[in-house]
């Protein structure tokens, strides 16, 4: 053996762990070992991995495949979400085309925004619709009777001719209602055109209301400006009256009015006052099967009123910001009281006061199902708490009754919209 030269390091030739399977055609079906030179001080496995180029390629390929799978999974999830949305929309369309009611309830207290019905009976059954039409016809008949009495006392030929024309139209409407009743009882296919029939009836009723209103205008010169009442014959989102001026800031209040309604369920919203940023600043509402409520700054107190019997009732609510104390009076008698109703919150100014509709937004967002149905008169607001005696004078139509110092009931103080009409005041007649 030759001696080792100084300064020269020897490499060891070791067989690495790389094992390759070859086909029998290339290598006769035998396994083949590849030997690699490895420095003496290097780890054998590290050297093996360093020289295993095919393994690195496989690792890169696997990572690419994994990324592709994740992308495809995300695409599939997005497609599933799209399918769910389309299925939901299709179900809603089928539900609406089939005449089924769409479930909606207010955020907090009102219904969700959406395609709102102009008629409150759209989602009701035919029997409910007919009952409401019958009530409307009765109201029109009563107004015609009042006009007839007026024309007799004034011997007005024009009033008589208009009355006869309106009576003829009412008779035609009654025939339409009777025809629909027969269709319901016999189950005829004519019910398929119910929407069109209702549209024609609505149009005719609106025309009748306008004609009667025009006829009643001739009586205005013969009565005081406060001797009138508002009539809301149907649940719609377009009949209302707007008070021309806003309310001032108030730390106490009394609101009183005469109401007559037999609407069910709930008489609706006699009035609502909204301000910027708060649609429920001051609201009186009886919605659905709930009792009548008063809302101040969206805080609620339930009122013990029972008024939907088709008779005139006088109601008053008093409130003070100190401790939120309130009292409720019906027909001059105290029916309930409470406290902690929006305590220390003054009624804000610069808002809109609407009669007959509930505001979801300032001056709008009306919902037909919350509309007031009936008659309203002598609506007054004070910026103080009235005494029991003062409220009794109002409820008994006493000559000592006061008028509101914030808002007083006057024809010139209101703008009327959508077919709501003003006609001869009759609330106090039942007491005389």
UniProtKB/TrEMBL annotation:
UniProt-listed CDD domains: PTX
One term of GO molecular function: metal ion binding
InterPro entries: ConA-like_dom_sf, Neuronal_Pentraxin_Related, Pentaxin_CS, PTX_dom
Signal peptide: 1-24
Sequence segments annotated as region (Disordered): 90-126
Residues covered by the Pentraxin (PTX) domain: 226-428
Coiled coil regions, renumbered to chain: 130-176
Cofactor: Ca(2+)
Pfam families, per the entry: Pentaxin
Keywords from the UniProt entry: Calcium, Coiled coil, Disulfide bond, Glycoprotein, Metal-binding, Signal
Domain of life: Eukaryota
Spans through the membrane: none
Protein name per the record: Pentraxin (PTX) domain-containing protein
Species per Swiss-Prot/TrEMBL record: Zoarces viviparus (Viviparous eelpout)
Lineage of the species this protein comes from: Eukaryota, Metazoa, Chordata, Craniata, Vertebrata
């Amino acid at each position: 053996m030759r001696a080792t030269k100084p300064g020269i390091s020897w490499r060891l030739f070791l067989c690495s762990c790389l094992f390759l399977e070859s086909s029998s055609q290339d290598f006769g079906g035998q396994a083949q070992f590849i030997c690699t030179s490895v420095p003496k001080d290097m780890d054998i496995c590290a050297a093996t991995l360093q020289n295993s180029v095919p393994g690195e390629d496989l690792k890169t390929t696997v990572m690419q495949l994994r990324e592709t799978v994740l992308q495809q999974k995300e695409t599939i999830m997005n497609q599933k979400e799209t399918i769910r949305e389309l299925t939901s929309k299709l179900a809603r369309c089928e539900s609406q085309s089939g005449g089924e009611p769409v479930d909606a309830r207010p955020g907090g207290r009102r219904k969700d925004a959406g395609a709102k019905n102009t008629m409150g009976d759209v989602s009701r059954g035919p029997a409910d619709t007919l009952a409401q039409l019958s009530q409307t016809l009765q109201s029109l008949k009563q107004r015609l009777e009042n006009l007839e009495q007026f024309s007799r006392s004034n011997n007005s030929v024009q009033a008589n001719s208009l009355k006869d024309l309106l009576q003829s139209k009412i008779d035609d409407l009654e025939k339409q209602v009777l025809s629909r009743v027969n269709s319901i009882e016999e189950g005829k296919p004519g019910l398929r055109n119910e929407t069109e029939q209702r549209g024609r009836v609505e149009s005719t009723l609106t025309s009748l209301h306008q004609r009667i209103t025009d006829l009643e205008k001739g009586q205005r010169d013969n009565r005081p400006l406060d001797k009138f009442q508002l009539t809301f014959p149907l649940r719609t989102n377009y009949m209302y009256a707007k008070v021309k001026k806003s309310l001032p800031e108030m730390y106490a209040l009394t609101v009183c009015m005469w109401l007559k309604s037999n609407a069910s369920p709930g008489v609706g919203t006699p009035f609502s006052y909204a301000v910027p940023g708060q649609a429920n600043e001051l609201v009186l509402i009886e919605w659905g099967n709930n009792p009548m409520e008063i809302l101040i700054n969206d805080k609620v107190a339930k009122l013990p009123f029972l008024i939907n019997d088709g008779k005139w009732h006088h109601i008053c609510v008093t409130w003070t910001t100190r401790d939120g104390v309130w009292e409720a009076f019906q027909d001059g008698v105290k029916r309930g009281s409470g406290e902690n109703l929006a305590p220390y919150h003054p009624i804000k100014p610069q808002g809109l006061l609407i009669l007959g509709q509930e505001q979801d937004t300032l001056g709008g967002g009306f919902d037909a199902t919350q509309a007031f149905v009936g008659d309203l008169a002598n609506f007054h607001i004070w910026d103080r708490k009235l005494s029991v005696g003062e409220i009794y004078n109002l409820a008994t139509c006493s000559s000592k009754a006061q008028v509101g110092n914030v808002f007083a009931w006057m024809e010139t103080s209101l703008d009327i919209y959508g077919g709501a009409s003003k006609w001869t005041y009759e609330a106090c007649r039942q007491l005389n």
